[in-house]
Amino acid sequence: MQRILVIEDEFFVAAHIEHVLEGEGVEVIGPVGSLQEAIVLARNEMVDGALLDVNIDGGRIDDVAEILAQRRVPFVFVTAYGRDNLPPAHREAAVVDKPFKDEDLIREVRRFRVN
Question: By its UniProt entry, which PROSITE patterns does this protein fall under (predicted)?
Answer without folding.
Answer: RESPONSE_REGULATORY (PS50110)
